[in-house]
TrEMBL record:
This is Methyltransferase type 11. One of its GO terms (biological process) is methylation. One of its GO terms (molecular function) is S-adenosylmethionine-dependent methyltransferase activity. Residues 44-123 form the Methyltransferase type domain. Keywords: Methyltransferase, Transferase. The keyword Methyltransferase applies. It comes from Thermoproteus uzoniensis (strain 768-20). InterPro entries: Methyltransf_11 (IPR013216), SAM-dependent_MTases_sf (IPR029063). The keyword Transferase applies.
Length: 139
């Protein structure tokens, strides 16, 4: 793991216990907006954080990916049966085209970086800095 990735993971590990209190409402609204673009039954939620999107994406299969073990522990507390993966969004250990939709909400600093998720899903929904990228088209 490189220095930057370690620092990001450490930051979110420390924030995990209060994340929902600070950002839960805002993140839930983003998930609700993203639902309009979610297609298929296999969803990759990169940067799932505390698992706020799990209930909203149900009954689809969702793989929750995050770089922070602290965040994934909170996601497990929210849904003990969730499938979770501790991984870097830029180095996902997944088979290509193994999901129908990939979500990356408040993950990438640059939306162009989210295009890397297209290797794993036909449809990409990403949000950062108030801008959306859906299937390669910025909105």
């Amino acid at each position: 793991m490189n220095y930057y990735v370690e620092r990001v993971a450490e930051y979110y590990d420390k924030l995990a216990n209060i994340y929902d209190e600070l950002y839960g409402q805002e993140q839930t609204v983003k998930y609700l907006k993203a639902l309009a673009y979610v297609k298929g039954s296999r969803i990759l939620d990169v940067g799932c954080g505390t698992g706020l999107g799990l209930g909203l994406l149900s009954p689809r299969y969702v793989l929750c990916v995050d770089i922070s073990l602290g965040m994934l522990r909170r996601a497990t507390a929210r849904n003990p049966d969730a499938d979770l993966l501790l991984a870097d969004a830029y180095l996902l250990p997944l088979r290509q085209k193994s999901f129908d939709t990939a979500l990356a909400i408040t993950v990438f600093e640059r939306l162009d970086d989210a295009r890397a998720l297209a290797d794993f899903a036909e449809v990409v929904v990403a949000e950062t800095l108030g801008r959306w990228l859906v299937s390669g088209a910025k909105i």
